[in-house]
Design goal:
With about 600 residues, the chain is of the alpha/beta class. It contains 22 helices and 20 strands. Strand 4, helix 4 and strand 5 form a beta-alpha-beta unit. Helix 10 packs across helix 11 and helix 11 packs parallel to helix 13.
């Protein structure tokens, strides 16, 4: 058969077309072992590599722009690849190998954590007498040295740390299982088991024997080998405009900017923005309509063969479920609050819809591989559904928020200024703050109250309160610098119990004393009287007491300095980003 005919036969093969479609091999980097002239290799994704022991096949492939290299499949440890592979294709090879187990173990070091292995092997059918018939005679070919049934082949693969499923690709998966026992040729489709270790009984047999040292090393060091060979591909999904001047988009931008700055991560962002929200990061627009956004996110996840998909906030819950079901990517939820609780606080959700939304979110928690949330209280709640949940409090960009920021761009009076920055949503507690100022603080000629709101949400600003127009986030530190005391007046409710005020860390980074209500985990960050002040939510008298204690400039200086130092030591975005990165890395080790 000519080389051209071999290519035509592969192109016409229904079996191969079904395999490549179901496994997405046309979009993946595939290591084709025993690749021949490249008839399969030519149909795999960009970055795929073939190896063969035949010089003629190498020359032909390279002349046709295929990356075919001369190498021995049983000496993979000696081959230097530029990257790890998403999948391995080895058809009509396994039955020729001297050391099948060593071959399978070495494949683990050459592939990404969620790699797919496809082994095509002629097998002895469930009814042995069938080998007398022509379609089955190839199983006993004289140059074969390994002989398997479909069951023994699957077990051989599984004992090397791959989760195996026998297929024929002659029919859809649900029907294929019935054809496997009678097929002369079986494909083992296997996913790498990243938790694989040899059983203790086997380890006792091998320890101290130099002959088995490389197998033991492969089992214990593969995660390190994989990570050093290949950058982790991460897809971030945000159903919001990340360029927006609000707390949640700012938090997301800060996290993604940190991840994109690490050398181990190749980041792509899908968001509602009209232009790239983060410099130097690959970006695509995400449709606003739910069905279209789900399709676009799934298409991108499959096309890009991502290692990890991050959904920012619970608004991405349905995107994460779709991607978790239809791809091999791990999924991470980076969440900030509970939308159903916010809607209930506003009275904008029916009891049935509230329960439905909560059910969907709890299902999502179970589907995720990792969840990060904005407070330890929220993390404790979510761990009922997903144990791998970590608290990532808000961070501060200390190049913007620091005690040396100039006050020049915002005018300031001579009185002690109490400042608030943020939005005017109901859970922020502005009506309580305004009432406390009107009842008790406005009569003190030494005090004034100034607010900088990013949005009003029908909040009425009373007379005597200084109001500043919204400014870009990078200008906010100049307003904070004009303030002597900063305040977070949140009331006690379920929204605040499970959330965290991102402004708290930025307030503290400015070297200003902060007064915060004992909710939203502020009491976990602030050491009362040391680096901030705490008051009981809704208690005007307690708030007034804290303000009066801070009229002393020496007390303000001492508490503000301690607050700034705490942020520099624990709560910069670099610190918080490292916690996120550690959680992500743990998924692949």
């Amino acid at each position: 058969m000519s080389v051209e005919d071999r290519f035509k036969n592969v192109g016409r093969s229904r079996t191969f077309r079904r395999a490549i479609a179901e496994l997405g091999l046309a979009k993946k980097r595939v290591l084709d072992i025993g690749c021949g002239f490249g008839e399969y290799l030519s149909l795999f994704g960009s970055g795929s590599v073939g190896i063969t022991t035949t010089e003629e096949e190498v020359v032909y492939g390279q002349s046709h722009h295929l990356d075919i290299r001369k190498a021995n499949a049983e000496a993979l440890q000696d081959i230097k690849f530029e990257h790890a592979f998403d999948a391995v294709w080895a058809n009509n090879l396994f039955e020729h190998l001297l050391s099948p187990h060593a071959f399978l173990m070495r494949l683990r070091a050459a592939t990404v954590p969620d790699a797919t292995l496809v082994l095509g092997v002629p097998v002895i059918p469930i009814l042995p007498f069938l080998v007398r018939f022509r379609p089955f005679r190839g199983t006993l070919a004289s140059n074969h040295i390994g002989f398997y049934t479909a069951k023994s082949l699957a077990l051989t693969v599984e004992r090397a740390g791959w989760k195996a499923v026998p297929r024929t690709f002659l029919a859809p998966a649900w029907l294929d299982r019935f054809l496997v026992p009678f097929s002369p040729h079986v494909y083992i489709v296997a996913q790498k088991d990243t938790a694989f270790t040899y059983p203790e009984k086997k380890l006792k047999e091998w320890r101290g024997e130099s002959y088995y040292a490389d197998m033991l090393a492969l089992g214990s060091e593969e995660s390190h080998q994989v990570r050093t060979m290949n950058r982790m591909r991460v897809l971030a999904l945000a159903r919001t405009e990340l360029s927006s001047n609000r707390g949640t988009p700012i938090r997301i931008r800060s996290i993604l900017s940190f991840l994109s700055s690490t050398s181990d991560i190749e980041l792509t962002v899908l968001s509602w923005d009209d232009s790239p929200p983060i410099d130097g990061v690959a970006w695509r627009a995400l449709p606003r309509k739910p069905l279209r956004s789900a399709w676009e996110a799934l298409r991108e996840a499959r096309k890009g063969s991502y290692d990890l998909v991050i959904g920012h906030t619970l608004s991405t819950w349905f995107l994460l479920i779709v991607i978790r079901v239809f791809t091999h990517a791990r999924v991470m939820l980076e969440m900030h609050g509970f939308p159903e609780e916010e809607a209930r606080l506003y009275g904008g959700i029916s009891p049935i819809r509230f329960r439905f939304d909560r059910f969907c979110y709890e299902v999502t928690f179970r589907f995720c591989d990792l969840i990060t949330t904005c407070s330890e209280t929220a993390a404790e709640h979510i761990r009922r559904f997903q144990r791998n949940t970590i608290a990532i409090y808000g961070g501060a960009n200390i190049s913007l928020f620091n005690p040396s920021v100039s006050r020049e761009s915002v005018p300031q009076g001579k009185r002690i200024r109490i400042g608030y920055v943020g939005n005017g949503r109901v859970w922020q507690g502005l009506p309580f703050l305004f009432a406390a100022f009107d009842h008790s603080l406005s009569h003190d000629s030494d005090l004034e109250l100034a607010v900088l709101l990013s949005e009003h949400k029908n909040i009425r600003i009373p007379d005597g309160v200084i109001q500043h127009e919204p400014v870009p986030h990078q200008v906010v530190p100049h307003f904070l610098a004009t303030c002597d005391i900063l305040i977070i007046p949140r009331p006690q409710n379920e929204v605040n119990r499970l959330s965290f005020p991102s402004k708290l860390i930025e307030y503290m980074a400015m070297g200003k004393p902060v007064i915060a209500s004992k909710t939203s985990d502020a009491q976990r960050i602030i050491s009362h009287g040391v680096d901030g002040m705490l008051f009981e939510p809704g208690d005007e008298a307690d708030l007034v007491k804290m303000v009066k204690a801070l009229k002393d400039p020496h007390v303000r200086e001492r508490i503000g300095s301690a607050a700034a130092q705490k942020v520099q030591d624990r709560y910069t975005w670099d610190h918080q980003g490292e916690l996120i990165l550690a959680g992500i890395s743990a998924l692949f080790t």
